[in-house]
Amino acid sequence: MDDAVRRNRAAWETAAGKYVREHDDLLRAAPTVVHLQSGHGLDDVALVEAGARTVIGVDYSAVTTGAANRRAAALGLGRRRAPDPGRPELLR
């Protein structure tokens, strides 16, 4: 590995460590998280497991919000019905 690649890798590893520490510190405070484009909800579940008190998953697709709601129900997590993506006025 040449010196430029080694320095680049070291910079990325430093940045990644900072990101992980900040993420862990934030979740220790048990925040409410709004997750835009949450899709199928897998990341939402991971955020709850990592310490978020509440995760509000938002997605435009009725297919993905349906999948997320089913996943939350199967895991015994509370859920709220998502607004109908066909009615954008509900998203305001």
Question: Mind explaining what this structure looks like?
Answer:
The chain is mainly alpha-helical and 92 residues long. It is built from three helices and two strands, in the order H-E-H-E-H. The protein has a two-stranded parallel ribbon with strand order 1-2. The protein is elongated.
Summarize this entry quickly:
By secondary structure, the protein is mostly helical.
Instruction: Give the helices and strands as they follow along the chain.
Output: HEHEH
Distance between the termini: 52 Å
Strand percent estimate: 5-15%
Oligomerization category of the chains in this entry: single chain
Strand order of the largest sheet: 1-2
Shape annotation: elongated
Work out the number of β strands. 2
Report the structural category. mainly alpha
- How much helicity do the residues have? 40-55%
Number of helices: 3
The low-pLDDT segments are 87-92
- Overall pLDDT: 82
Main sheet record: 2 strands, parallel
- Backbone CA Rg: 18 Å
Which key terms come to mind for this protein?
92 residues, mainly alpha, two-stranded parallel ribbon, 3 helices, 11% strand, elongated, disordered C terminus
Question: What does the secondary structure layout of this molecule look like, with pairings?
Answer:
Elements: H1 3-28, E1 32-36, H2 42-50, E2 54-58, H3 62-74
Parallel strand pairs: 1-2
